[in-house]
Write a structure and sequence with these properties.
Elements lengths: L3 H10 L6 H33 L2 H26 L8
Organism: Escherichia coli
InterPro entries: MFS_dom (IPR020846), MFS_trans_sf (IPR036259)
Protein name: MFS transporter
């Protein structure tokens, strides 16, 4: 999507040249693990609420949980990504 190429470039560009393959592999593994974890947690939130209350509340809460995770991810990126990278 819109983030995959820039985030991969950033992850690989910040690594030394001789470690770019390792950086790419670690990035892909972390990305896949994060995606799997996000789907599992979101699905669990939806299923628990939909089974106990109703489908609309389960869907709404699942989407709000995803929005909260997106906001947290954005804040973590703002805090942890160095701002003075000139080699990109």
């Amino acid at each position: 999507g819109l983030y995959a190429t820039p985030s991969t470039d950033t992850a690989v560009a910040s690594a030394p040249d001789d470690k770019s393959g390792v950086a790419s592999g670690v990035y892909k593994m972390a990305s896949s693990l994060g995606n799997a974890f996000g789907v599992a947690v979101s699905g669990t939130v939806y299923t628990v609420l939909a089974a106990n209350l109703n489908l609309n509340l389960g869907g709404f809460t699942g989407m709000m949980f995803n929005a909260l995770l997106a906001i947290v991810a954005f804040l973590v990126i703002l805090l942890l990504v160095p701002k003075n990278q000139t080699n990109l």
